[in-house]
Amino acid sequence: MSPNLCGWLLLQQESDRLRILAHLEQGLAEDGSKSSVTQENRQASVQLWRSRLGRVTCSMANCLLLMKDYVLAVGAYRSVIQCHPEQEPQLLSGIGRIFLQIGDIKTAEKYFQDVEKVTQKLDGPQGKIMVLMNRAFLHLGQNNFEEAHRFFTEILRIEPTNAVANNNAAVCLLYLGRLKDSLRQLEAMVQQDPGHYLHESVLFNLTTMYELESSRSAQKKQALLEAVASKEGDSFNTQCLKLA
């Protein structure tokens, strides 16, 4: 299904859910007829339909992102926060990364600062990991690979199995001219837990490094293909291995 058609269908669903929510908030049933349900049941229905609206709006934002309509995508993600306030730090981080992707470093930094304010109220390591990840990506967007690597490494001290931090730390090492160290890090990841780390972004980076490192890259790619085949089966997209 094309992103345009997907977006149109999701827009229809969003409209339906908004209409149902309006009926419930007016004291009516979902279809707009009179209702005699208790206030408690009505509140439960409002929460249910607000959650459904949030999921549809998030899917629509993802479609807009695929269509590269960044302004509307950001607006849609901000709307999701109203339906799912508990996901505010994750959504603000995602919006910040959209601005990083289009090169608007200042706006990205502003969103990441908002995340830091929100995560101060959170318990546990996940809030800290989110803040460190945003700082790392901000430095990555500024081509400051030394600082980006420092933050990715700090994440790995807290959560050694974090695939995103591991993969990006290796990329930073590559840009810092430390190809051997970068290769060692990615190979150690894949060998340590193939089921967890054998995904496209890691394998694409690993095969790129093989091409830079050795004229025997074809043999190493073949070994990766065999590892993928034993774990993932025929459904895996092997284009990331750049075998052609």
Describe what you observe in this structure.
Pfam families: TPR_19. This protein is mostly helical and 244 residues long. The chain is built from 12 helices and no strands. Helix 3 (70-83) packs antiparallel against helix 4, helix 8 packs parallel to helix 11 and helix 11 (200-213) packs antiparallel against helix 12 (217-232). The protein is elongated and about 75 Å long.
Give me the strand/helix succession.
Answer: HHHHHHHHHHHH
Number of distinct helices: 12
Shape: elongated
Strand content: under 5%
Rg calculated over all Cα atoms = 22 Å
Largest sheet: none
Which secondary-structure class do the elements indicate? mainly alpha
DSSP summary, beta strand count: 0
Q: Give the low-pLDDT segments.
A: 5-9
Mean pLDDT: 81
Pfam families: TPR_19 (PF14559)
InterPro entries: TPR-like_helical_dom_sf, TPR_rpt
Protein name: Trafficking protein particle complex 12
Keywords: TPR repeat
Summarize the structure.
The protein has 244 residues and is mostly helical.
Short key terms for the protein model shown above:
single chain; 244 residues; mainly alpha; 12 helices; 0% strand; TPR-like_helical_dom_sf; TPR_rpt
Layout: helices, strands, pairs:
Layout: H1 3-25, H2 39-66, H3 70-83, H4 88-101, H5 105-119, H6 125-141, H7 145-158, H8 163-175, H9 179-192, H10 194-197, H11 200-213, H12 217-232
Helix pairs in contact: 1-2, 2-3, 3-4, 4-5, 4-6, 5-6, 6-7, 7-8, 8-9, 8-11, 9-11, 11-12
